[in-house]
Amino acid sequence: MAKQTLSVLDSTFTIHSLSEEQAIPAAVLSSNFYFIGKTHDELSLVVKEDIVIDAIESDYDWRVLEVLGPLNLSMVGIMAQISAVLAAAKISIFVVSTFETDYFLVKSETLSKAVAALKKARYDVLQ
Q1: What residues does the A9CJY8-like N-terminal domain cover (predicted)?
Q2: Of 8, 54, 76, 98, which has the maximum CB count within 10 A?
Q3: What is the pLDDT of residues 43-57, one digit of tens each?
Q4: pTM of the full predicted structure?
Q5: What are the angstrom distances between the C-alpha of 38 and each of 19, 22, 64?
Q6: Judging by beta carbons within 10 Å of its beta carbon (0-12, 13-18, 19+), is residue 49 exposed, middle or buried?
Q7: Per-domain residue ranges of the chain
Q8: 3-state SS track over the chain
Q9: What Rg do the C-alpha atoms of the chain give, in angstroms?
């Protein structure tokens, strides 16, 4: 029996690092998919690659694996188990979450390897 189902999103994404004082660009807020993380000393954005950001640093060419949910907040170990599969396959990840699900970002050049590792570990992966 399969574990969770993941879906590969069509778009390619970029992870940006901005100063904590920098305003979030309007293009980000009008996009249909983005993540914002802000702390006392950093502002991070995950956006589709076609959104141009004046960032301190940017890391391009990420693909997204969405854990199809909704996932109940009381569920334990989903992120850890998927992360362990990808770590064992030597695949770097960047993870973001919403209230209902988790998103694993992998570099485009490792997407096929990530999908193969997840399928071998009995996850369904929709492409």
Answers
A1: 13-52
A2: 8
A3: 999 999 999 999 999
A4: 0.91
A5: 9, 11, 21
A6: middle
A7: 5-126
A8: CCCCEEEECCCCEEEEEECCCCCCCHHHHCCCCEEEEECCCCEEEEEECCCCCCCCEEEEEEEEEEECCCCCCCCCCHHHHHHHHHHHCCCCCEEEECCCCEEEEEEHHHHHHHHHHHHHCCCEEEC
A9: 15
